Every structure is written in structure tokens, then in C-alpha cells.
């Protein structure tokens, strides 16, 4: 509610100061939003059906988008005029950081682990049938059918299928390695060959690639200062059905691997023999440090009481059955200057901008309150 009030105050002030936005710009932005909305439906008929359910016409929807585009542009222009952004120098940023450490988030707890992962796999005939199905679907798209339509009809990912297979923007480093390789190395607007992940067979199409932007429009970076990449992706998933025997076989293998890992002097040797982990890892199964916050709840709970040097119970996730060895722990802590030095000017600049914007809006609120009291 407060955010809505603030926006209305800024729009009112923009009008008072004579800030205007050309109709052509408003129409262009609204048309882009409408096109995006249409593209999230498998067929034009599905889009029209949703409009009917919401008692909405496309003309009224377009008018709403125009209004939102105009207000958004007016807010942006007034803010740029009244609260210009400035990136502080490295020295200024470091002084701010040291004086306001309480304003910065803490570095999350991390675990360094090695893993033995045993995926449940289907028999060869079932696996081959799923791949053949994926190849047939790809032929339909290459032959001229719309990706969104085919995704809506065939994808086993029911959530994205309703949006024509659209997964939105995904950040590099957060996906299955094979999937990510296709997304960031494949040709844009071209359907991949079927590729296998723990989820099944995918057909992947990258629609756009860029660096992940901060609210200030700058490149986001990791702790080493490397720009973070993201891609707009859509996919079609063909799951490979597993039988109870397939799952039981994988579980038995994981139990056997854990029993050996508990008594072995070299966890890495056991990992080499058993693990089918597909992500980045060393030969001994080491997957480096991972933020505890990024782990699935059941994995996090299963590792919570494992001491450094200890081996976990068999823990299950989408990829299969996992046995982890904890090799190091880092508790949650305040970031040191060295950990954030590279991205500090951009981060501090954004924080200082937010502070100035808050003060500006407080001033608008105060003026509005005075007017109300006078009336």
C-alpha cells in the first residue's frame, strides 16, 4: 500500500512539474507488454479464453498497459531529474561500508562437500522411447509449428507448458550443466537437439542472453567481479518414466556406496567408482563451497548435524540418491572488505540512491499531509 501511495505522489509531482511522455513511447511499451502476454499462451484461442474468464477485452487490457507505461515513465523521469544516481569512488564506497556495516547483508553459511550421486535410471527401451518422442516433437517445430503451441500440447512440465514452455530469465550457474550449456552456447532462436538431464529429455530454445542487471542498470557481478549472465529460455520436457524397480535399484547402489564410504580412507575413490554426478566437480567428488541457503530443505536438514569429515545418510533430491562428505564449514559472517571490494561502488551507489529517494518521497508525503490538513 505504501508503495502504491508513493507512486501516486511521484506521478502527481511529475504532472505538477510538467513531466510528459510521448504517446508513441507509451504505445510502444504497451504493445511490447501485450505481445509478451500473448506469447505466454500456447494458442491464440487459449489467450482469448483467459480474457473471457477475466471479463476483459484486449482493448481494455491495452488501455491498462498504456496507463501503467505512462505512469512508470513519468516516475522514472522525475526520479532521474530530482534524485540523480551517482557511483561513488572506491574510497567513498569503502568509507560508507565501514561506517554502515549493519546495512549490508551477511555472508551466508557455506559447506564444502564431496558427493556421490546415484540417479535412478530407466531401462534402455523406456529411455529410447522418450528420446524418440522428443525427436518427433522437434521435427514438428522445425517443420513450422509454433514452439509455444507444441509446448502446450506435449510438454510434461505442466507449469511452463501453460506459458508456451517459457521459463523466463534464468541466471547462469543455477541450471543443470547440460541444460545450461545449450542455453548459453546454443544458437539463439533455434531449437536444440534433445538433451538429457535428471528431469528427462528437453528441447531448449534460447530467446535472449544478457548480463544480469542491478536496479541501477549496471552489470551484477559475483564475488570475483565477473559479470553474471542470464538468458530468456523456453523448453519442452519429456519425462522418462521410472518403475519401482528402477528406483529400488538406485537406492540399493547408494546404500552400498555409503557403507563403503563410511569405512574407506579415501572418499574420492568411492566417488570415482559409483558417482554419476553431472555438475562441475573434481575427480574425488569435491563440488566446492555451496551456500547452505541454496540447498533443498531436506538436504539442508540432512547435513545440519554432519560434522566436518563426516559422511551423510543417503539424501534424496530430483537428481537421485546422494551421499555427501562435509570437508569444511563456514558460518554466517559479516562480509569483509576484500570479499565485496569489486562490487562495492555499485552497491553503495544503489544504497545511497535509495536513501536519497526515500528522503525525497518523505518530502512529498509531508507536502501532501500539509495540504490535507489545510483542507
Automatic annotation (TrEMBL):
It comes from the Bacteria. PROSITE patterns: PPIC_PPIASE_1, PPIC_PPIASE_2. One of its GO terms (molecular function) is peptidyl-prolyl cis-trans isomerase activity. Keywords: Isomerase, Rotamase. InterPro entries: PPIase_dom_sf, PPIase_PpiC, PPIase_PpiC_CS, PrsA_foldase, Trigger_fact/SurA_dom_sf. Residues 108-208, 228-328 form the PpiC domain. PANTHER family: PEPTIDYL-PROLYL CIS-TRANS ISOMERASE HP_0175-RELATED, PEPTIDYLPROLYL ISOMERASE. This is Peptidylprolyl isomerase. It comes from Eiseniibacteriota bacterium.
Amino acid at each position: 500500500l505504501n508503495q502504491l501511495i508513493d507512486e501516486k505522489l511521484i506521478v502527481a509531482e511529475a504532472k505538477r512539474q510538467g513531466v510528459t511522455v510521448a504517446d508513441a513511447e507509451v504505445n510502444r511499451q504497451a504493445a511490447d507488454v501485450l505481445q509478451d502476454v500473448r506469447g505466454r499462451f500456447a494458442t491464440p484461442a487459449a489467450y482469448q479464453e483467459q480474457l473471457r474468464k477475466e471479463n476483459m477485452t484486449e482493448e481494455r487490457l491495452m488501455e491498462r498497459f498504456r496507463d501503467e507505461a505512462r505512469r512508470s515513465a513519468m516516475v522514472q523521469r522525475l526520479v532521474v531529474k530530482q534524485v540523480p544516481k551517482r557511483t561513488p569512488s572506491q574510497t567513498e564506497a569503502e568509507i560508507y561500508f565501514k561506517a554502515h556495516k549493519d546495512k549490508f547483508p551477511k555472508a551466508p553459511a557455506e559447506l564444502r562437500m564431496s558427493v556421490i550421486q546415484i540417479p535412478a535410471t530407466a531401462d534402455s527401451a523406456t529411455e529410447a522411447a522418450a528420446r524418440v518422442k522428443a525427436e518427433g516433437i522437434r521435427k514438428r517445430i522445425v517443420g513450422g509449428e509454433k514452439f509455444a503451441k507444441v509446448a502446450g500440447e506435449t510438454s510434461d512440465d505442466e507449469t511452463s507448458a501453460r506459458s508456451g514452455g517459457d521459463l523466463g530469465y534464468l541466471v547462469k550457474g543455477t541450471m543443470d550443466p547440460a541444460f545450461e550449456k545449450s542455453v548459453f552456447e546454443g544458437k539463439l532462436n533455434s531449437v536444440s537437439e534433445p538433451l538429457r538431464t535428471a528431469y528427462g529429455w528437453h528441447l531448449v530454445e534460447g530467446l535472449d542472453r544478457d548480463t544480469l542487471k542491478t536496479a541501477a542498470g549496471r552489470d551484477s557481478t559475483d564475488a570475483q567481479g565477473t559479470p553474471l549472465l542470464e538468458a530468456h529460455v523456453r523448453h519442452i520436457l519429456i519425462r522418462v518414466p521410472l518403475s519401482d524397480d528402477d528406483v529400488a535399484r538406485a537406492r540399493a547402489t547408494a546404500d552400498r556406496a555409503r557403507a563403503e564410504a563410511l569405512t574407506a580412507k579415501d572418499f574420492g575413490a568411492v566417488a570415482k567408482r559409483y558417482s554419476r554426478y553431472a555438475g562441475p566437480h573434481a575427480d574425488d567428488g569435491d563440488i566446492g563451497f555451496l551456500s547452505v541457503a541454496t540447498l533443498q530443505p531436506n538436504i539442508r536438514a540432512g547435513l545440519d548435524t554432519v560434522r566436518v569429515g563426516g559422511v551423510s545418510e543417503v539424501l534424496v533430491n530430483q537428481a537421485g540418491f546422494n551421499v555427501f562428505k562435509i570437508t569444511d564449514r563456514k558460518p554466517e559472517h559479516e562480509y569483509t572488505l576484500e570479499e565485496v571490494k569489486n562490487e562495492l561502488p555499485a552497491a553503495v551507489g544503489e544504497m545511497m540512491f535509495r536513501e536519497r529517494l526515500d528522503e525525497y518521497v518523505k518530502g512529498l508525503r509531508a507536502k501532501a499531509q500539509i495540504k490535507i490538513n489545510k483542507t
